[in-house]
Amino acid sequence: MPLVRFDLIEGRDTDALKQLLDAAHRAVVQAFGVPERDRYQIVNQHPAHELIIEDTGLGFERSRNLVIVSVTSTQRSDKQK
């Protein structure tokens, strides 16, 4: 039962948000081997001035479409990792 949290800048439409959450869930099902209905996701939308994520020297600009994904899970086996 991984818990997946998403922090993003507010303003995405419902369809774009659904696509993001569905894609993340498919990845969790595949990576963690959890049942399809074992889905725990929380979305936090922030005004742009409350989510400051700057370049750390990699030489690219981040857009307003950035997403921070945090996963909390129980311990996994070496094979799952």
Secondary structure elements and pairings:
Blueprint: E1 3-9, H1 14-32, E2 40-46, E3 67-72
Parallel strand pairs: 1-2
Antiparallel strand pairs: 1-3
Question: Describe it for me?
Answer:
The protein is of the alpha+beta class. It has a single domain, classed as Macrophage Migration Inhibitory Factor (2-Layer Sandwich). Helices cover 23% and strands 25% of the residues. It has one helix and three strands, in the order βαββ. The protein has one helix at residues 14-32; strands at 3-9, 40-46, 67-72. Strands 2-1-3 form a three-stranded mixed beta sheet, with helices on one face. The longest helix is centred in the first third of the chain and has 19 residues, at 14-32. The radius of gyration is 15 Å and the shape is globular. The two termini are 15 Å apart. The relative contact order is 0.33. The mean pLDDT is 90.
In short:
The chain is 23% helix and 25% strand. It contains one helix and three strands. The protein is globular, with a radius of gyration of 15 Å.
Give the uncertain stretches in residue-range form.
Answer: none
- Helical content, roughly? 10-25%
Tell me the number of helical segments per DSSP (H or I, 4 or more residues long).
1
Count of spatially separate domains: 1
- What is the molecular shape? globular
- End-to-end distance: 15 Å
- Annotated CATH homologous superfamily: Macrophage Migration Inhibitory Factor
Count every beta strand, where a strand is a DSSP E run of 2 or more residues. 3
**Share in β-strands:** 15-25%
If classified by CATH, what would the architecture be?
2-Layer Sandwich
Q: What is the CATH topology assignment? A: Macrophage Migration Inhibitory Factor
Overall residue-averaged pLDDT value? 90
Q: Compute the gyration radius: what is it?
A: 15 Å
- Could you name the CATH class? Alpha Beta
**Biggest sheet: strands, sense, closure?**
3 strands, mixed
Topology pattern, helix = H, strand = E: EHEE
**Structural class by SSE content:** alpha+beta
